[in-house]
Amino acid sequence: MFRNLNTIILTILFLLQVNLYFSCTNVTEELLVQKEESGILAGFRVRKIHESATVTAGYGKITNLRDADTEVREIRAEGYETVEWHTSSLEDGIAKMRKVDFPIPLPSGKEILLDKGGNHLMLIGKKKKISETVRIYFVLSNGETLVWDAAVK
C-alpha cells in the first residue's frame, strides 16, 4: 500500500515540476511589436512587478539583419540603475541563473531569443515608478546606440 502511495506522490510531484517548468517558458508568444533600428530587428517586454520591487526581467527577440557580426557592449534602461544579460538553465533538475559578461555577440543573420528558462535581461535598481513602457538602449561595438520601447506586462 505504501509503495503505491509513494508512486502516486512521486508522479504528482513530477507532473507539478513539468507544469511549472513549461509555464515559465515561451513568453515571447505574447509579445511583441518588433521594430527595425539600423539593421537590428528587435522587440521587448518587461515583466510587470509590484511597486515596492526593485528588480525585474526583460524578454524579447533581437535579430541582426546586417551583413556583418556585431556585439552589444552595454544595455541601459530608463528608470533602472543597471541592466545585466543573464542565462538560465536546468542542471540536474535544479534551475540556475548566471550573469553573462559583455560584450554579447550578435552574429549576422541570427536571432537571439530572450525568454524565461534561457537568455533574458535583468533590470536592477528601479529608480522611479515605471509606466506602461520602459525605454531600453543597446550600445553596440561600433559605438552606435539603438533604442526600443519595451511594453510592461
UniProtKB/TrEMBL annotation:
It comes from the Bacteria. InterPro entries: LpqE-like (IPR007410), Lxx211020-like (IPR058248), PCuAC_sf (IPR036182). Pfam families: PCuAC. This is Copper chaperone PCu(A)C. The lineage of its organism: Bacteria, Pseudomonadati, Spirochaetota, Spirochaetia, Leptospirales.
